[in-house]
Amino acid sequence: MTPVPMVGRAAELAELVRRWSQVRQGGPTPAAVVSITGAAGIGKSRLVASALAAFSPAPDAVLYGVARLHTPAPYDWLAAVLSGRDTHDLPVPADGLAWLAQDPHAPSERYAPGALLRLAVRTVRALVGAGPAVLVVEDLHALDPASLNLVGELAAAPDLPALLLVTSRPPDAADSPELVARTLARLSGARGAIRQHLGPLGPAEVAEVVTQVHGAIPEHLAGAVCERTGGNPYWLVELLAATAGRGPQALLDEPLPGHLRPAAAPEPAELTAREQEVLRCLAAGMSNKQMARTLDISIRTVAVHVSNLLRKTGSASRTEAALWAVRRG
Ligand SMILES: Nc1ncnc2c1ncn2[C@@H]1O[C@H](COP(=O)(O)OP(=O)(O)OP(=O)(O)O)[C@@H](O)[C@H]1O
Ligand SMILES: [Mg+2]
Question: I want to staple 116 with a disulfide (CB 3.0 to 4.6 A). Which of 49, 111, 154, 236 is the partner?
């Protein structure tokens, strides 16, 4: 299915575009900070993608990093930004860069945490250059403590010609809720910072999405689909995909994924054999790295299994998935 155009979120998008033009015009000296929060699948990444496409003139540089592993590594955000970039010209010592980029051949001599943080800020400043740039921090809730600290520093860094866009699920969905809450508070406290909390789509917006696929539909059907999916665009898109090629009535007949079913009638989520193994390891408290070693698969593959089973079990975090496993024996 081709992705449906973004519906709703017009006010949020307009605000982001306005922020960008302020930054472009040499506006606020500390980076302009926007935190976009909301539940899983509510449309945070989609809003950021739409904003990046709408920024005009386009940013000279976009530093985009997303938490890549479920086991957070230090400075994972920056490592994601650096991956695939030519870093030869950066005015940062090569061994420091190797650490920041999580280069497996980084020299064994470690940096003191404070020194590494300063190097990380210097690296970002060098990448931003004269700017203006957009720094995108996706999935703050899944980032490691060092990255969280770095993002907090960047939000307050003087003379950084950049717009800092951060997305995050609510802190209670994070592995370290307190740290994430503190970082979000720190971001909101930055000068001129704004917070956008995304709620579910309303029935009219859900109808707009469904119409893209099925043509005009009766109002009651839009209302029912809105209710079934909780107005969550992710679940809406999933439902549309699961019923592709069938008439609109299928939107009501299709069984819902476990996550959305009323708690009174839980159906076992269908995990593949591999996902079950991963879940067992997870319940045993293993890190992704340990699982990779135990199951003899790559860390990336582990990350994919973990993310699938979080979705299938309707868990917001590894801890929740582990509890789910324990509850089911
Ligand atoms: N406003 C919207 N209109 C149409 N489709 C949308 C909208 N928002 C999100 N979607 C679609 O819903 C799905 C989930 O959106 P997205 O990935 O942006 O959620 P998210 O909040 O970033 O979730 P996560 O917390 O898992 O990162 C995507 O397929 C996206 O294209
Ligand atoms: Mg996202």
Answer: 111
What integer pLDDT is reported at residue 3 of this predicted model?
67
- pLDDT 10s digits, 28-46: 566 699 999 999 999 999 9
User: What letter does residue 311 receive in the DSSP assignment?
Assistant: H
The predicted model scores a pTM of 0.79
Task: Indicate whether residue 6 lines ligand 1 (CB < 6 A).
Answer: yes
The two tokens of residue 110 are 């470690």
Q: What angle do CA 186, 192, 197 make, to 5 degrees?
A: 65
Ligand 1 and 9: CB distance under 6 A: yes
* Crossing angle (nearest 10°) for helices 145-156 and 177-189: 10
Greatest pairwise CA separation for the chain in angstroms: 66
- As beta bridge partners, residue 37 has 168, 197
Mutational pocket test of ligand 1: of 12, 42, 213, 234, the residue with most ligand atoms within 8 Å of the beta carbon: 234
Residues 198, 12 contacting (CB under 8 angstroms): yes
Q: Which two tokens stand for residue 39?
A: 């539940």
